[in-house]
Specification:
single chain; alpha/beta; TIM Barrel; 8-stranded parallel barrel; globular
Length: 272
């Protein structure tokens, strides 16, 4: 029976309680939702923090508060902080946040840190710092072309060869923000055997997309950041319900969710 990592993404940068009443915005609510997701089978949290007006922030102090609360309340769950720009932050500000925080795990969109692939040396310096400080990076790509850029950057030494974790985002640039299972196909044309790859998917086919990824050897990131609906079309109560639904379906396919420690070892994440 295969173990698959499930990463919960319960809020993201853009949605608010106007989108769903239970969407967590505060640190307290985010940690509470993370605990529910962990109990349902998620071994990692993809974390965002918000400001007083519910706006997206890259704030070292708030991240530290979140990480401390997670360590206290959900110590067995890995925490990945986002560095997402959301059209607000420059690559320099993203780097400054990650360096000041020095987290165990962070996600980074390759197109953002590299300024649309125009600053390879700046990119190399930052990822060299991550390697030296044992910060686990999940590289985010939005197309098979960006995946090829990632592979080319690794071959060129711009991204360290040991950086093998990557997230494929499906549906982000569809007009209707609705991903399809066949959106995964172009990524699968590449040799992924040496990578720890995940999929997240916008829209109502989120579970179908991440199931296809798991069956192909990948892992899943799911949650209200990308989708609010269960596979049957009903509005989910929270991200934990999406996790529970995925775990139930995985059991039917002889697959089980990895524990936090299993995920840590598989991904090579440092201890706190």
């Amino acid at each position: 029976m295969r173990d698959a990592i499930i990463m919960a993404a319960p809020n993201g940068a853009r949605k608010t309680k106007a989108d769903h009443a239970t969407l967590p915005v505060s640190i307290v609510d985010t940690v509470s939702e993370a605990a529910l997701c962990h109990a349902a089978g998620a071994s990692a949290l993809h974390a965002h923090v918000r400001g007083s007006q519910d706006e997206h922030l890259l704030d070292v102090g708030l991240y530290r508060e979140l990480l401390q609360e997670m360590a206290t309340r959900v110590p067995d769950m890995l925490v990945q902080v986002t560095s997402e720009a959301v059209g607000i932050y420059t690559s320099a500000q993203q780097v400054e946040c990650i360096k000041a925080l020095n987290p165990q795990m962070a996600s980074m969109a390759l197109r953002e840190i590299s300024s649309d692939f125009t600053e390879p040396e700046y990119t190399r310096q930052f990822f060299a710092w991550c390697l030296q400080n044992d910060v686990h990076i999940q590289h985010i790509v939005y197309s098979a072309e960006e995946l090829q850029k990632f592979l080319d950057y690794r071959d060129a030494g711009i991204i360290p060869a040991s950086h093998r974790c990557i997230l494929f985002v499906l549906g982000r640039y569809r007009a209707d923000f609705q991903s399809r299972v066949d959106d995964l196909t172009p990524f699968l044309q590449h040799d992924l055997d040496a990578l720890d790859w995940f999929v997240c998917a916008f829209g109502h086919q989120e579970q179908q997309c991440v199931l296809a990824a798991i069956e192909a050897g990948g892992h899943a990131r799911i949650g209200f950041e990308n989708n609010l609906y269960l596979p049957n079309g009903e509005l989910a109560e929270n991200t934990a319900e999406l996790v529970s639904s995925l775990v139930e379906t995985l059991a039917e396919r002889e697959c089980r969710p990895a524990s936090g420690e299993q995920a840590r070892q598989l991904l090579g994440v440092r201890n706190a």
